[in-house]
UniProtKB/TrEMBL annotation:
GO terms for molecular function: ATP binding; hydroxyethylthiazole kinase activity; magnesium ion binding. It catalyses: 5-(2-hydroxyethyl)-4-methylthiazole + ATP = 4-methyl-5-(2-phosphooxyethyl)-thiazole + ADP + H(+). Its EC number is 2.7.1.50. Pfam families: HK. This is Hydroxyethylthiazole kinase.
């Protein structure tokens, strides 16, 4: 979808901002305030997000959506797509545990979302694991996802449409920066916003690049955190579909921030997961505005 410049102007009108006393806010605080405004809008508007996601991620994705204020619906039968998908505010498709039965449902749902003018978000989990998976994913990319979010290995593989990317499995074998050019190229060829997650997350429309440095490495030790943040991206894009670049960056910052806050209390991956969900539910304006770390790269 075409980007508009409205979001940053619209979300920075807080006359009570402490930064006003010291002069105009700097660019990073404008981005951080944008992240808060997106989270606040998700809480107020509770977007309905249809998820066709892998079996491993269903629980964490649904809980992350609920804690954010969104309304998840894990509906994947092809028999329900026609009735349900046009009612959803956004659709999330994740190919992590795809099967011959699910692929037609994914394609039908993506088509239904397109026809209903709803944003839809693709997570190309382990896209280079098999030619079946790659071909299914390439067919989905043709159905014009609004956002594609993957780890560096997935974005590198999808961007070049190579069958062998050097990835081990569903985890990334690359740093996110290694995939930045591939992400820009994929964004241009697919007309989607592309996000590469990692120690630093990058979000691009092919020209502009927003980076986010929130998060902790322990998040990689919880299965399906990537799937969960893609679900969160769908909720954020649902409430700001004309600014999907910014909505995607906001979701990544908010999710990364829950990792940082959760890590202050966690003793390992299982408790981190629990604390992340709690923090997503509890996050307040001052924490997001002071701790979201977003910036635009030139
Ligand atoms: N080294 C790191 N430091 C900080 N945050 C990280 C790091 N690696 C990943 N993250 C964060 O973890 C989340 C998941 O990203 P990751 O790249 O691990 O996804 P993924 O490989 O697709 O995960 P999965 O397949 O398990 O769902 C993102 O929010 C990302 O910012
Ligand atoms: C472990 C795993 N295998 C297929 S999907 C998935 C969840 C993380 O992507
Ligand atoms: Mg993944």
């Amino acid at each position: 979808m075409e980007e508009q410049e409205a979001t940053v102007r619209n979300i920075n009108p807080n006359p009570a901002s402490p930064s006003d006393e010291a002069g105009p806010p700097d660019a990073s605080s404008i981005w951080a305030r944008m992240a808060w405004t997106h989270l606040d809008a998700v809480r107020r508007r509770a977007p309905l997000v249809q998820c066709i996601t892998n079996l491993v991620s269903m629980d964490i994705a649904a809980n992350v959506l609920l804690a954010s204020g969104a309304s998840p619906a894990m509906i994947h039968s092809i028999n329900e797509i026609q009735d349900f998908t046009p009612k959803a505010d956004a659709l999330y498709i994740n190919i992590g545990t795809l099967s011959a039965e699910w692929v037609p449902a994914m394609q039908a749902a993506a088509k239904a979302a397109l026809e209903a003018n709803r944003p839809w978000v693709l997570d190309p989990v382990a896209v280079s694991a098999s030619s079946y998976r790659m071909e299914a994913c390439l067919e989905l990319v043709k159905l014009r996802p609004t956002v594609i979010r993957g780890n560096a290995s997935e974005i590198l593989a999808l961007s070049s449409a190579c069958r062998i990317s050097g990835a081990k499995g569903v985890d990334s074998a690359h740093e996110s920066i290694d995939a930045l050019d591939a992400a820009k190229s994929l964004a241009k060829s697919s007309n989607a916003i592309v996000a590469v997650s990692g120690a630093v997350d990058f979000v691009t429309d092919g020209d502009r690049v927003i980076s986010c440095s929130n998060g902790v490495s322990m998040m990689q030790k919880i299965t399906a955190t990537g799937c969960a943040v893609t679900a969160l991206i769908a909720a954020f894009v649902a409430i700001d579909p004309w600014n999907s670049l910014k909505a995607t960056a906001s979701a990544l910052a908010v999710f990364g921030l829950t990792g940082e806050l959760g890590m202050e209390m966690a003793s390992g991956p299982a408790s981190l997961r629990m604390h992340m969900v709690d923090w997503l539910y509890r996050l307040n304006e001052s924490t997001v505005v002071t701790r979201a770390r977003l910036s635009e790269r030139s």
